[in-house]
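# nightly structure sweep
# worker-07 picked up a monomer target from the shared queue
# config: single-sequence mode, recycle default, output format = structure tokens
# input follows
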Amino acid sequence: MDEPIDDLLAQGRDEEVKARINALLQQPAETPMPPETAAGVLAAIMATDSANNTPVVGLHRPGNWRLYAACAAMVILTLGGYFWFRKAGVAYKENHHAKMADKMLNDVQPGGNKAILTLADGTVIDLDTAAIGELAKEAGSTVSKKVDGQLEFQGSNSPLTTHHSPAFNTISTPNGGQYQVVLPDGSRVWLNAASSIRFPTAFNGERKITMTGEAYFEVAHNEHMPFVVNVNDKEEVMVLGTHFNINAYENEKAIHTTLLLGSVKVVNRESAIVNRQSAMLKPGEQVSLSQTSQLSHPIPVQTDEVMAWKNGLFNLAGADLKDFMHQVERWYDVTVQYQGDVPNMEFQGKMNRGVPLSDIIDYLKNLGLKCELAGKTLHVKSK
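# output follows
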């Protein structure tokens, strides 16, 4: 192995130093002497010349080879530093890109338009992969998938004859899914993640459907045919034509029904039949059915917060950590596990739910939580 140049200088082996520097100057620019070595040469030259009282000045002194060596070292130091930092920058970028690629590979992307349609005859259609256009015909109705992630039912709404039994379709969204449906009467329904609706292929006298999870309804007005939503067999929402939202997830504290336009009547199906609890809502009001089957009085709410999910946002207003994590579980199709006690915190505002899960994790880490994603399980604990 070659001796360091600064050692050769200290030993007075000048000719060897000259040969080494000349060799270094002949190397391609992309592979100059490393900056730390060039700096060492320059420092050694300056130190030995100072010790010999020979100042390194003036290019007019051709006999002062050490001046030449010092200048060469400075050139090498400059070029070496440039190329070293350039290579370091490239290496950093490559390493950064590799880390980002690995992060994306192991990240969880946000939900999208995904749903399963189960026809009356038991046929199951994956709407995520189904082609655009007509999907099926049944009981006089045509089922079509539209370009914008919407399912449309078109057909006759005339009453069925007495010898026909109603035929029902079911649309269900998985965790990480959402979908929009146009029912046979023209009513529109937006399904949030982990939700479902069941409805007849043609409405007969009464427009009655059942639902689970969360859905927003824009009901087509028909004063001769009321629209009734059975929610988890716990409550009924009765309307003629209106806009409203129902949040009825089983792991939430209550079923929340919120009216945006028109009027609705909410009935507690679990109360005594002879004296069932009910409430009439005005626009901007919400009523809640607790887990103990108590129906609240209508209260005014911020409807933009209620409708945040439909507008691509998480609603965090007044939510505790578990409330927020319920939304995360449903939208990213993950399971949240808490290590130790669940941290006590309250959130406010809204958050974009079009971001990958890693952004949510970074947000939680900035709040002082320790989060680790292992497969489809998100571990959360206080730092």
